[in-house]
Write a structure and sequence with these properties.
Blueprint (H helix, E strand, L loop, with lengths): L4 E4 L5 H10 L1 E4 L6 H8 L5 E4 L7 H5 L6 E4 L9 H6 L3 E3 L6 H17 L1 H9 L18 E5 L3 H11 L4 E5 L10 E2 L3 H7 L2 E4 L13 H7 L4 E4 L8 H9 L5 E4 L10 H4 L5 E2 L8 H19 L16
Parallel strand pairs: 1-2, 1-3, 3-4, 4-5, 6-7, 6-9, 7-8, 9-10, 10-11, 11-12
């Protein structure tokens, strides 16, 4: 139990709210009739922040909370948080890795199969009564395809392990070659795209990866190529992807993430030969509960003086 004031900007799962409300002096920004006035009032006292969603946490935001010690973020990605700036100010940032790795990896495989074998389209075909008229046309296959993974981190490795069971060749691209990894490494993304049939992105967002999958990469992927993205939407140049799909520069795409969520380009929605999901990679009851609990546990551990459980790399413990 602590009397530390904790701010929650938008509502999280009920068990997270209940846990934090019972353990801290929880301030709920969404309940305030005047949000700005509320933040101005409580800002000078806030020592912890529990957050979900993609509210931008930058220098100007941090200026409002001079006593802030920790930002406990829901989700593995934290490109919406300027963690380097937080680190310079001695503010810890934590995320929720590991507990969602398997769930997202499972979803990535499901999305890959759904995209290649047209599973959503086949479902719609049957429901529309078209099977009574004629069989659904033959689809592409996963057999014999080489898969290139962009971002061989925790989730990327979990995806690769699952793909091994399908007997496909696996390659990867990242900042550097990893020791002890049995898959072929490509120093450049374009070269990997040219050599694979599926480009599967699990890359995080941020300036380093912004629109990394551009027209040149899609051109290299080629007319039999498929793009799968379960990482961050900003990694893909969406206008270039739309054009590549329209021009049949690539065969298809399966996307769980988008550049400006929850707004999805209408041009993508209008295409029937691709598969679109509303960012549900980790969206099972069990996994989301575990993620929420880790948000709580990071705050509890910090204010118990035990340090954070899952700090991000840019913010080492300084207090």
């Amino acid at each position: 139990m602590s009397d530390a004031p904790i701010l929650m900007l938008s509502p999280m799962a009920p068990h997270v709210i209940e846990s934090l409300d019972g353990a801290f002096a929880l301030k709920k920004a969404w309940e305030a009739p005047d949000r700005e006035a509320f933040l101005a009032e409580v800002g000078p006292t806030i020592r912890g922040l529990a957050m979900a969603g993609h509210a931008r946490v930058d220098g100007a935001f941090l200026d409002r909370f001079p006593k802030l010690e920790i930002v406990s973020s829901f989700g593995v990605g934290y490109d919406h948080i300027d963690a380097a700036e937080a680190g310079r100010r001695g503010v810890m940032v934590t995320n929720t890795p590991d507990v969602l790795t398997d769930e997202v990896a499972d979803l990535a495989i499901g999305l890959l199969l759904s995209t290649l074998r047209h599973l959503p389209q086949v479902d719609r075909y049957l429901r529309a009564g078209k099977w009574l008229e004629k069989p659904y046309p033959l689809t592409p296959t996963l057999r014999g395809r080489r898969i290139g993974i962009l971002g061989l981190g925790r989730i990327g490795k979990a995806v690769a392990r699952r793909l091994e069971g399908f007997g496909v060749e696996i390659a990867y691209h990242g900042r550097s070659k990893q020791e002890g990894v049995p898959y072929r490494y490509y120093p450049t993304l374009v070269d990997m795209a040219r050599d694979v049939h599926v480009l599967l992105s699990v890359a995080p967002g941020g300036a380093e990866t912004d629109r990394m999958i551009d027209a040149t990469v899609l051109q290299a992927l080629g007319p039999d190529g498929v793009l799968i993205n379960v990482g961050r939407g900003t990694v893909v140049d969406e206008p270039a992807l739309v054009e590549a799909l329209r021009a049949k520069t690539i065969l298809s795409a399966g996307l769980d993430v988008f550049a400006d969520e929850p707004r999805v380009p209408q041009a993508l929605i209008d295409m029937d030969h691709i598969v679109l999901l509303p960012h549900v990679g980790s969206a099972s009851v069990e996994t989301r509960r575990a993620m929420g609990q880790l948000v709580v546990d990071n705050l509890a551990s910090w204010f118990d003086g035990k340090g954070p459980l899952t700090p991000v790399a840019e913010t080492p413990v300084r207090r």
